[in-house]
Design goal:
Blueprint: H1 4-9, E1 14-15, H2 24-35, E2 40-51, H3 55-63, E3 69-79, E4 90-91, E5 97-98, E6 103-105, E7 110-113, E8 118-122, H4 124-129
Parallel strand pairs: 2-7, 2-8
Antiparallel strand pairs: 1-8, 2-3, 3-4, 5-6, 6-7
Domain DUF6957: 19-128
Pfam family, one: DUF6957
Protein name: DUF6957 domain-containing protein
Length: 131
């Protein structure tokens, strides 16, 4: 992580009720069943950001079929395409679908939320300031 304020931010927010304790093989079967051959990542120590922007900005996102949520994790445990190294971090693009349990889909990837994580509301500036 860059500086301590970024690290502190990732410890803020509410503890989420989302996430799964399923073993990797079962998560992979679930992803394959619901999303076919779409690339996927297993992530731990995750944070779902609910975007805090003016209503008209949020409405534009929803109008193109996306949800106003991003995912950040600083612990990728597995990436089906090897794009992110194990233990590396990832910040998603906007959410396309979320199953309300553990599967967070973007246009290009399905992220499986493993273990416990957090949720918080943040501005785009804050979200994109993370690295």
């Amino acid at each position: 992580m860059g500086n301590s304020s970024e690290h502190e931010l990732l410890r803020e927010g509410e503890i989420s009720s989302f996430g799964t304790e399923l073993p990797q093989a079962e998560i992979e079967a679930l992803v394959a069943d619901r999303f076919g051959r779409k690339p996927y990542c297993l992530v731990e120590d995750w944070l779902i950001f609910h975007v805090d922007e003016p209503p008209e900005s949020l409405a534009r996102v929803r109008a193109i079929g996306l949800q106003t949520m991003f995912l950040y994790s600083h612990c990728v445990t597995y990436d089906s395409q090897g794009r992110f190294p194990p233990g590396g971090w990832v910040r998603s693009t906007l959410c396309k679908s979320f199953d309300g349990v553990c599967l967070f889909e973007t246009r290009n990837t399905v992220y499986a939320l493993v273990g416990k994580g957090r949720e918080m509301t943040a501005s785009l500036k804050t979200i994109f300031g993370l690295c």
